[in-house]
């Protein structure tokens, strides 16, 4: 098979780069087999990707002795996206490579919800420092922001991040102006769903419900028929705002509260006597309370939240009939106590036919899931048209601001 016109070349470059992005390093022979292009075409396309600074080639595995040796093609470690997740208790920043590995990860705790301007200033300041240090030789593609709130798909406007007290914030414009980089903005849980679908616990699964538990509450993301579903405005998946079904009135702690008022990270922190904590710290505190009295309080609160969560998940299963439900953040922590038991509770409350093949999984990308998702929406345009970035090795990409629309795998 040969290339036909510039459109065909673009598609083939995109196919090769996306394959490497999704699966890791491959030999030229494997690329030839996967794409059904001929060897000379693969060599030409790989050569162009090398010239753009997007991939590297190395000698084949010396242990492979059968047939003609085939060079190994891998993504360049220099290509990175900056990812940010502003929250009520911390702003987490990272530099994520095209192969999903994290070069840098920093959590900056705050004593109150940051303003958009404060979050932007911190990101710009840290990026300046990184460019003089660990990212001095990096090709920075852009910035992705995972925001715990409603983000309009058409232009990335943060319509309402209630826990941050942000309303109608043009966050992408603020960050692009401060950094000079192309910027994309999306809901944090939607990005977590995409990351787990492409690279994590729901990889290869076409129908997924993802729930994310963070400092700002509970959000969610949906994959239906292999496609991310955002809804007409991009606001789908707000499971935390649903009214929970609570069978035992004694379990209700928030009068007329929504799901995230009852199944709550702040209630777990209070049970272990912490004001703030990252995900591993909270998980460790819940697993090993310091004394019998705290241990009893923690066990009771975790059990209460599991009962309410199981009903919420059963409702989601009845409506959406997913193959897999993935839980991230503190929801994964309380589910991990006994995943099989939680799944059994969901099945007991949902339609039997809808749960026959249902699986419940914990987010395998752990605390990097939102950052990997934020980086992914930055990489999207590069993956779609690798040849559109001829100056990438010198970080010469044109600055643009776009919204993060639902992404198909």
From TrEMBL:
It comes from the Bacteria. SUPFAM superfamilies: Actin-like ATPase domain, Winged helix' DNA-binding domain. Residues 388-409 are annotated as: Disordered. Pfam families: ROK. Belongs to the ROK (NagC/XylR) family. This is ROK family transcriptional regulator.
